[in-house]
């Protein structure tokens, strides 16, 4: 892949480094960065995160935004049995296909509006606009509904772990 990319971009110098391998110092840096990102600004620094799972089967989930993050997360929410309401002016090709196949997915073709969180058990703010994501998270906080902010994890009340699959 590197050779093909380099051949296609002769004006760019490409350098390859050796694989780092086991490195305790690098692992310590990664753990420190993770802890920094996991700290919520509204709680005391260093407050721990409590890990749990959600049973979303038959429950209403609001997803605001329909880009790359929603492409990854909406199928998993549906697989968990959630009823997903997607609010976004546009819809990705992948989500458009899901919409045709999944009765538990509803799309409201419009921007986010105050009041959209009402009735949701769980919220995902995944637009490309930090101000909209902040408004979604603030409404969810006021309604005491957990909210994941795709753009600023520490500013949400919940986090979604990264999961790698072969799809």
Shape: globular
Radius of gyration: 19 Å
Q: Structural class, from helix and strand content?
A: alpha/beta
Low-confidence stretches: none
Number of strands: 5
Number of helices: 5
Strand content: 5-15%
Main beta sheet strand tally, sense and closure: 5 strands, parallel
Strand order of the largest sheet: 3-2-1-4-5
What's the mean pLDDT score? Answer: 86
How far from one another are the termini? 20 Å
Helix content percent band:
25-40%
Order of helices and strands: HHEHEHEEHE
What is shown here, in short?
This protein is of the alpha/beta class. Helices cover 34% and strands 13% of the residues. A five-stranded parallel sheet has the order 3-2-1-4-5, with helices on both faces.
Description:
The protein has 167 residues and is α/β, with parallel strands linked by helices. It is 34% helix and 13% strand. A five-stranded parallel β-sheet has the order 3-2-1-4-5, sandwiched between helices. β4, α5 and β5 (146-149) form a beta-alpha-beta unit.
